[in-house]
């Protein structure tokens, strides 16, 4: 029996460049005071590091959305900093903090663990062979779900507006989290990810999804996102799906640069069965969007 290569994308995914090669204008995480440094004790012998951005104008009488962002393989570790490299600047921008008052959490997956138990095989000239989730999810993912439960209990969080976003390895983790706790999330954004298509029925038509991928991704085959989107449509769900032509390993940059993504995300409300919340937002794009990059 072939053991599916769960670690293929984890070893090669995430950041395409080492931290030393990042632009000098990249979001600084080492001295950031916007994201509070915290840890969550999942078990006596397991602690999950995470960073949390709180609402800009927090009102104790209000309940706020919660966004959980799962990073890629390149940001694994225990420094409680690297996980902010992709997307940390997006949620921390003053404009977005004013427009979308919310809690934003970036947990960090330690080495050599992974957000997901899913694996796949892709050999040249052959179709992708998909694996299945293990009976028990990875420890970092289970710890993250427990952290979400704790935050909902302890903070002023609207339990009907909990969102999960995942990049690369985190995109796989976001989809596995949906299969485990579909009733927890109001929306999900898996970017260049994939997952067990036999588990899609657990969240199809229950959780709105917007998937992103690039046709020329050299590490995570675009067919993995297509398989999830196609399975959702087969089950009469209507996922948003944006496929870039030449974004390579950086499709998350283009996804975060899409001016309609955050308005779409924050408009989702589990209590309203996926309908828009009471705020003005632009129309979401058509379910399939092909976008060549200039």
Automatic annotation (TrEMBL):
Entry keywords, A to Z? Signal
Identify this protein by name: Prolyl oligopeptidase family serine peptidase
The segment(s) forming the Phospholipase/carboxylesterase/thioesterase domain are 144-257
Return the annotated region ranges for Disordered: 270-294
InterPro entries given in the database record: AB_hydrolase_fold, Plant_Biomass_Hydrol_Est, PLipase/COase/thioEstase
The residue range of the signal peptide is 1-21
Q: Which domain of life is it from?
A: Bacteria
């Amino acid at each position: 029996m072939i053991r599916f290569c769960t670690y293929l994308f984890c070893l090669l995914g995430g950041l395409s460049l080492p931290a030393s090669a990042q632009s000098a204008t990249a979001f600084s995480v080492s001295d950031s005071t916007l994201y509070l440094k915290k840890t969550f004790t999942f078990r006596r012998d397991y602690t999950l590091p995470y960073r949390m951005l709180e609402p800009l104008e927090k009102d104790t009488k209000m309940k706020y959305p919660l966004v959980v962002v799962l990073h890629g393989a390149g940001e694994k570790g225990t420094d409680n900093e690297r996980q902010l490299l992709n997307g940390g600047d997006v949620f921390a921008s003053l404009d977005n903090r004013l427009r979308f008052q919310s809690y934003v959490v970036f947990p960090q997956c330690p080495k050599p663990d992974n957000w997901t138990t899913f694996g796949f095989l892709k050999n040249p000239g052959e179709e992708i062979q998909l694996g299945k989730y293990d009976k028990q999810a990875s420890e970092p993912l289970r710890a993250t779900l427990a952290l979400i439960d704790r935050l909902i209990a302890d903070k002023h969080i609207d339990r009907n507006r909990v969102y999960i976003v995942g990049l690369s390895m985190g995109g796989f983790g976001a989809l596995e989290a949906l299969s485990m706790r579909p009733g927890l999330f109001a929306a999900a954004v898996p970017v260049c990810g994939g997952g067990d298509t036999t588990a899609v029925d657990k969240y199809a038509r229950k959780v709105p999804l917007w998937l992103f991928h690039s046709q020329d991704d050299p590490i995570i085959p675009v067919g993995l996102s297509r398989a999830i989107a196609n399975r959702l449509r087969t089950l009469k769900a209507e996922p948003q799906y944006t496929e870039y032509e030449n974004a390579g390993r950086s499709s998350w940059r283009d996804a975060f640069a899409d001016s309609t993504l955050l308005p779409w995300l924050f408009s989702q409300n589990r209590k309203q069965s996926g309908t828009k919340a009471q705020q003005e937002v632009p129309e979401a794009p058509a379910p399939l969007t092909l976008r060549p990059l200039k």
